[in-house]
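testing teh design pipeline on a random one, pls ignore if ur not involved
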């Protein structure tokens, strides 16, 4: 059977956040994204802060009915806490996330299964707390991001889907949560070196994103990773509903790029939600085979994660 290239778009929804406070923009944005995803035949995963889901619950239910995924996003300052999740104790993270889960469930009628923290801010407690609260997958890491000012330090964390480590967020391990890192080009640095060029739609144009997608696909093929996937990102703070909007055009170009690269590499292009990418990973690398990453000193370069064992029926 032809191997697959999964393509996914994560949308962090936070138009009601205290620094933005524009629910009308949020609404236009998700309406435009719903239409853009339909036009391009792709799937979105909307990760939503509690006040956004309360503002537009009916719209999110429609998006879910159309095959998209809805999960939880948090900006702790909006809940009265210090803004960066990665500075908090396990107890405080439990409190912040539990409040988010309750408000999400009130609005949508079910608990969220997926999660992303604002700024990719997390610490060594985060994955364990997510597992305990019943989250099954999400996008917590931004590999190679080094922004201590946001408690978002990801050094050489895995570039590919993995089960994270219970005590060290940078390693693979045995937490029953599929971590799905956003696609990055670790060698192209931004923001004084603290940030890799990642696949957020609004960062650069489609031509630039072509190089990131191409490099990420080539690397996964070279490393024979169990899953080939591309994970793009955007926010509902851009007017995706406006005709000719630059971000709309960029996203159309990114989907074209991924389709074209998949075809060249003889991979079947398959749009997916994060839940579908996580399910594909769990099938390729069953949880019972998850193991703590073997560490060995290799001063020549990255301490590559232990290759996960493939699923032999
Ligand atoms: Zn955010």
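output:
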């Amino acid at each position: 059977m032809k191997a697959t290239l999964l393509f996914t778009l994560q949308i962090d929804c936070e138009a009601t956040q205290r620094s933005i406070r524009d629910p009308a923009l949020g609404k236009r944005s998700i309406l435009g994204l719903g239409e853009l995803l339909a036009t391009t035949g792709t799937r979105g995963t909307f990760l939503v802060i509690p006040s956004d889901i309360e503002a537009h619950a009916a719209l999110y239910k429609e998006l879910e009915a159309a095959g998209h995924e809805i999960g939880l996003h948090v900006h702790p300052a909006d809940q009265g806490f210090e803004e960066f999740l990665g500075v908090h104790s396990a107890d405080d993270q439990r409190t912040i996330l539990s409040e988010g889960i309750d408000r999400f469930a009130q609005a949508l009628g079910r608990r969220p299964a997926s999660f992303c923290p604002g700024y990719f801010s997390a610490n060594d407690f985060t994955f364990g707390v997510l597992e305990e609260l019943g989250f099954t997958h999400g996008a917590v890491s931004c590999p190679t991001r080094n922004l201590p000012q946001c408690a978002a330090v990801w050094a050489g964390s895995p570039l590919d889907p993995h089960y994270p480590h219970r005590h060290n967020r940078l390693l693979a391990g045995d937490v029953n949560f599929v971590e799905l890192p956003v696609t990055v080009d670790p060698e192209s640095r931004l923001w004084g070196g603290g940030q890799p060029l990642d696949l957020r739609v609004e960062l650069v144009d489609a031509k630039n994103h072509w190089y990131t997608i191409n490099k990420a696909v080539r690397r996964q093929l070279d490393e024979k990773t169990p899953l080939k996937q591309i994970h793009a990102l955007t926010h509902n703070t851009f007017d995706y509903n406006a005709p000719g909007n630059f971000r709309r055009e960029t996203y159309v170009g990114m989907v074209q790029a991924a389709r074209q690269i998949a075809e060249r590499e003889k991979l079947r292009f398959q749009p997916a939600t994060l839940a579908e990418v996580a399910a594909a990973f769990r099938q390729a690398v069953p949880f019972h085979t998850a193991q703590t990453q073997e560490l060995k000193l290799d001063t020549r370069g990255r301490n590559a994660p232990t290759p996960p064992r493939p699923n032999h029926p």
